[in-house]
Amino acid sequence: QVQLVESGGGLVQAGGSLRLSCAASRIIFSINVVEWYRQAPGKQRELVARITSGGTTHYADSVKERFTISRDNAKNTVYLQMNSLEPEDTAVYYCSTISGAGYRYWGQGTQVTVSS
Which phi and psi angles does 41 have, rounded to 5°? Predict the structure, then answer.
């Protein structure tokens, strides 16, 4: 069974940094698209960042220049480095990937809270 496990969330002051990790089992990140989404209370889940199998990255406009998505193939782990955090970044962050068969998998989410 495919599992995605996020970690690294927490409480941080505005302007601070956090690094989220997403470790996968039974699916190989290096050959699939991996994405980070977030969902704030009362809002829809939104795409934050994406990394393709070729290493191409994409970011939501709201996080460009502040967030960086990366992948460690040896550890089968994807990271989201978040700098210059703002209260508006407060949300549950989810890791997601799509298998070769087209099935989307989700992690359980990790809470990020940014205080002003």
Answer: -55, 130
Query: Do the Cβ atoms of 105 and 33 come closer than 8 Å?
Result: no
109 DSSP assignment: -
Q: What whole-number distance in Å separates Cα of residue 101 and Cα of residue 36?
A: 20
Sequence-distant (≥ 6) Cβ neighbours of residue 29 within 8 angstroms: 71, 73, 76, 77, 78, 97
What stretch of H or E contains 35?
strand 34-39
Q: 96 and 35 in contact (C-beta within 8 Å)? A: yes
Average pLDDT per consecutive 10 residues, the chain (116 residues; last block may be shorter) = 94 98 89 94 97 95 98 95 98 94 94 97
pLDDT for 5: 96
Distance CA 112, CA 116 (A): 13
How would you class 82 by CB atoms within 10 Å of its CB: exposed for 0-12, middle for 13-18, buried for 19 or more?
buried
* Residue 113 tokens, joined: 């809270």
